[in-house]
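Troubleshooting log. The previous structure file for this entry was overwritten by mistake, so regenerating from the original sequence record. Sequence copied from the archived sheet and checked twice against the printout by T.R.
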Amino acid sequence: MTELVKRQLELLNAREYRKLRHPPELDPDTVVQQWDKHTLEGEAARFAYACTCEKEAVFHGEDLFGFNRYCSGALPNKGRFGNVVIDYETVLAKGLCGILDDINARRATADEEAQCYYDAVETCYKACFGLVEMYKKAATVQGNTRLAQALAQVPRHGARSYYEALVMLRFLSYVLRINRCVHLPLGRFDLYMRPYYERSVAEGMTESEGLELTELFFIAMNFDSDLYIGIQKGDNGQSLVLGGCDREGNEVFGPLSEICLQASEELVLIDPKVNLRVNKSTPLPLYERGTRLTKQGLGFPQYSNDDIAIPFLISLGYDPADARNYAMAACWEFISSGNGADTPNKTTMLFPLVVERVTREALPTAKTFEEFLEAVGVALDRECDRLMEECNKHPATTPVPLLSSFISPTIEQGRDITRGGGKYHNYGLHGAGISTAADALAAIREGVFERKDFTARELLAALDADFVGYEDMRKTLLSYPKMGNNDDRADLLGCFLMDRYASYLNGKPNHIGGVFRAGTGSAMTYITSAAKIGATADGRRAGTPFASSYSPSPDARLKGPLSNIQSFTKFDLTRICNGGPFTIEIHDTVFRNDEGERKVAQLIKAYIDLGGHQIQINAINRDRLLDAQAHPENYPNLIVRVWGWSGYFTELDTVYQNHIIKRMEFTV
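Regenerated output below.
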């Protein structure tokens, strides 16, 4: 880490720069009423207004990138499009003027809707050019000649060097966030940035200079991340992907990939969140390299398995080249890079809610467990129908011409992505609480039908009472088989739930020309939706959280990490791969020697080799987290993995803090 990087990092971590922001002069909610939010013209005008709120160029310290927020306010995020990877390759190569040239070449044959779309894009670009000029002039005045020279080239024209490409990425993030587009990942950074990196190396840039630029860029991406929150601070979608294969199947991981890992390891920042694409052929040393990053307590890299993700995407109609070129959305959903307008987190299948309802409706009259289980299956089918119908009622209505212009083939089509301009328009559904639901089914089979420890009506009475007065029954329920211990009595019930869900949902058409995709993620619903679900037959009390995404229930007592992995790789995950990682907590003492790091790496490799789709590791220490709750002022930069993103522990709501503390810490 160079002295310049150290100074910029210290400036970032002090957070004093946040006090320099200014509120907007006009209330955005009042201003936006001047335009119809459902028109291309209105959306472009609102973006132009938002640009005028950025009244001055803002530089933090010895800033090589600029494009920091002047305005502390933002137009409302509700209903905004996001979770897509823009076509970085094309935008970096052509620049905005190159895209305008493409538009002008199509004007003569464009229909009325295309003309409106092109007009809106031009309006947005004109506002962008105003911001670029403002920053170029300010950089010149301040003697920041390197940035001023770069801004004479980008973003109007294509990048010619690694530095210019980084400046353009910073600009794109800045203007798209001003446009209220949410959860915008950086996509396959080491793939599309490699030509610029290699060109700069050929022209004399050293590896250390490349690392310094990368670290300064990573720092720049953190300066305003607190303004771009989803559910909690840190939930901002700023992730990137390293490794995997390209469109032709060639391995991508190389020198730039390693530089990104080193930069992230040295900086210890929440952004950008790193995803590593791996497969059965990935050598153990790469897992060991990733584990050294996990050791920093960042909660990443998150590992995604090409052997699972690529077949899943192909099975749902993605071209093989696009499937091989997949990236992750903000958290972990698998999406096509550069040409997809999927909504991968459209809604959530709440497995515990379905099982709870059927327990009340069908258990009292069920003669056998098989009869009861089939009732659960039918209920899952009907819930899929309900969720699909609900999704189809609410397609995206607010156009996003600026974002759309960076996604192929919208310019060729002359259509915004909300009007069919992208190549893919699929809906992804999360699948939350799988382990809680499976454990509840296992408890019902054991307690009611096999061991007959209690009757169905006694169980329902206990659930109605939230186990108050039924503490002994709750202890019995908690002692039954749990998913995560390599016990088929629970694990195969989890497989049943996933099989029924995926078989019924996958490939069903949506109302915008795409299909539905099944996944194992939960996002925030493991907290928010769980709070509305009553007590469940696994012993879980009413309102308490279930597992984050594809993981054991917080109430399960587990044997160890290997049996945990074995449980969660019994299902063919190529069938339920919208996204949703297996998450495991490892006590941070494990990472204090080479042997411990190697064992963690072997554990991750085992999950991938057994057919796991995604895995993320949290290196945590419960005592430290408890102390951070009691004395947050001492831990301003303590980072944890929450669900598909990492954030500062002390900035999280208490309910999320408590869930992380409760998760079981393994040693290996």
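DSSP finds 27 helices and 13 strands in the chain. Archived copy saved in two places this time.
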